[in-house]
Amino acid sequence: QKEVEQDPGPLSVPEGAIVSLNCTYSNSAFQYFMWYRQYSRKGPELLMYTYSSGNKEDGRFTAQVDKSSKYISLFIRDSQPSDSATYLCAMSGDSNYQLIWGAGTKLIIKP
Amino acid sequence: NAGVTQTPKFRVLKTGQSMTLLCAQDMNHEYMYWYRQDPGMGLRLIHYSVGEGTTAKGEVPDGYNVSRLKKQNFLLGLESAAPSQTSVYFCASSYSPLLTSFPSYNEQFFGPGTRLTVL
Question: Is the pLDDT of residue B103 over 70?
Answer without folding.
Answer: no
